[in-house]
Design a protein that fits this description.
mainly alpha, rod-shaped, 76% helix, 9 helices
Length: 269
């Protein structure tokens, strides 16, 4: 179920969730009415039911906060990786300027092209990302080969290990950034959140059925708020195609500062 929710359009998920919550409320009301027909005092347990509803809402709030924290921490990790990767590429590019020609032009060109590809990868639509992902991996291999060839004659100098370490960091952060895009909320957590939300809606319908007012408007507003909260959580958990996207400004500024780099509005190499 969590996989279906993760892949379906967010608008559709929100509509279905609201309908399910409303249906669960009506089911709770129906169950309460059926059971109250056989009770000697239909209103005798209203205070106990209120405690149960308060406990359910409190636990739901706790689960929402926990899940939102997980999704937000993954978003922050992806954002920090963009900054770290742009800094690493910039550091390697700066150290490459110390090399003599033609090694300087060779390594600088590879780093500049790689930076443009990484910017395009970050800004690309979901259907275009695999193309830039393949290009990134191929360029990292070229970077490693070129760096080893350039460093080998100067490995005894201070520049050799420094340049090698900078290139290694570029490669490692690129792979880490791509892995972060695949990191999603655990399926069990998403399923538990959805199940607990529906069960809470059922409890709300059961408890409020015993009151004089059905509180349909109030509960509908509550369901809208719950739907919006879960929408945000699921959106944060969709790094490749969600509406909440990680800013690519650090990489765009780096590319803009490099010779021949495109403007942030036209990142594609």
């Amino acid at each position: 179920m969590a996989d279906l929710v993760s892949e379906a359009p967010l608008a559709l998920v929100a509509i279905v969730l609201f309908v399910v919550l409303s249906a669960a409320r009506e089911l709770g009301t129906f169950v309460h009415r059926r059971l109250s027909r056989h009770a000697d005092d239909p209103d005798g347990d209203s205070s106990d039911e209120g405690f149960i509803l308060s406990a359910a809402l409190g636990l739901l709030a706790l689960l929402l906060a926990f899940t939102f924290g997980l999704a937000l921490s993954r978003y922050e990790a992806r954002r920090e990786l963009v900054v770290a990767e742009s800094n690493a590429i910039g550091t390697a590019y700066m150290r490459a300027q110390v090399l003599d020609a033609p090694e300087r032009a060779r390594l600088s060109g590879l780093l500049a092209a790689y930076a443009r590809t990484r910017l395009a990868f970050g800004l690309a639509e979901q259907q275009d990302k695999p193309r830039y992902l393949a290009s990134s991996r191929a360029q990292r291999v070229d970077l490693e080969i070129a760096t080893l060839e350039i460093v080998r004659p100067i490995r005894a100098t201070a520049l050799g290990p420094s340049l090698l370490a900078a290139t290694n960091e570029v490669v490692d952060l690129g792979a880490a950034r791509e892995a972060a895009l695949e990191t999603r909320l655990p399926t069990t957590v998403v399923e538990a959140l959805l199940a607990f939300t529906v069960i809470t809606a059922l409890i709300i319908g059961y408890v409020l059925a015993g009151t004089k007012s059905r509180h349909r408007v109030a509960t509908s507003v509550l369901f809208v708020l719950l739907t919006m909260a879960i929408w945000i959580i699921l959106d944060l958990d969709r790094p490749r195609r969600g509406t909440i996207v990680v800013s690519q400004d650090p990489m765009a500024q780096l590319v803009k500062s490099m010779p021949g780099g495109p403007s942030p509005a036209n990142p594609h190499p």
